[in-house]
Design brief:
Number of helices: 8
Strand order of the largest sheet: 3-2-1-4
C-alpha cells in the first residue's frame, strides 16, 4: 500500500481507501497496474477471480479465491489503447450503481498509480479480450482498431468471443485469435483501417 499512497494525491487516496480498495477483495475481475522488470512501465494486467474446487482435506471448507492473469498490455500498445481502456473502466460502478470513476487512476499523462482496481464482468471481459488480441499485432493502428471495436461489444458479445478465443485448447485458441484479429483489426496495410479508426474514436 505504500507505493499506492506515495503515488496518489490526498483526494484520490481518500477515495481509494474508503471506496475502491474494499471492492477489490470480491470483484470478479481486477486491473493491476504495476511495473515489471523486463517491460516498459507501467504494465496493465487484467486478472479474473476463480473459486478453487472444494478440497476434501479441509472438511468441506472452500479455499480462498485466486486471481489468475488473463492478459497484459504495455508500451506503445498501451498508449494507443489507453483512451479505450479509460472509457471501459469508467463504466464500473459499486453495488448501489454509483460510478467508481476508476479512470482517474489512469490519467492521460504520466500514470503514477500502482495497485489493483476492481472491475465488473463487462469491463474485465472486454479488457481481457483486447489485451490478448493485441499481443501479436505490431501495427498500432490495428491494435487501436481492435480495442475500439471490442469496446462497442455488449457484455454478452464480449463474453462469447472471449470464450471462443481462450477455452478451446491451445491450437484452436490460436486459430480463433488469429481470425478475430483480422475480423476486428483488418489486414495489415489495409487503407480502410485509418478511415474506420476515425469513425470510432471518441
Amino acid at each position: 500500500m505504500e507505493n499506492q499512497k506515495s503515488n496518489l494525491d490526498l483526494d484520490q487516496l481518500t477515495d481509494f481507501q474508503q471506496r475502491i480498495r474494499i471492492l477489490v477483495r470480491n470483484a470478479p475481475w481486477v486491473l493491476r497496474i504495476t511495473d515489471l522488470r523486463d517491460k516498459p512501465a507501467p504494465v496493465f494486467i487484467v486478472k479474473k477471480r476463480y473459486l478453487p474446487d472444494e478440497d476434501p482435506r479441509k472438511n468441506g471448507i472452500k479455499s480462498k479465491t485466486v486471481l489468475r492473469d488473463q492478459g497484459l498490455i504495455y508500451g506503445q500498445s498501451l498508449r494507443r489503447c489507453l483512451p479505450v481502456i479509460r472509457l471501459i473502466i469508467n463504466g464500473v460502478c459499486d453495488e448501489a450503481g454509483v460510478p467508481l470513476e476508476l479512470q482517474q487512476y489512469t490519467g492521460n499523462g504520466r500514470i503514477t498509480f500502482r495497485g489493483n482496481l476492481p472491475l465488473d464482468e463487462e469491463a474485465g471481459t472486454k479488457l481481457s479480450l483486447i489485451f490478448q488480441l493485441q499481443a501479436r499485432v505490431k501495427d498500432l493502428d490495428r491494435v487501436e482498431l481492435i480495442a475500439w471495436r471490442v469496446e462497442r461489444f455488449s457484455r454478452e458479445e464480449a463474453a462469447y468471443w472471449l470464450t471462443r478465443a481462450t477455452q478451446s485448447g491451445a491450437a484452436a485458441n490460436r486459430w480463433a485469435q488469429a481470425g478475430m484479429r483480422i475480423m476486428l483489426g483488418g489486414q495489415p496495410d489495409d487503407k480502410a483501417i485509418l478511415n474506420l479508426l476515425e469513425k470510432l474514436r471518441r
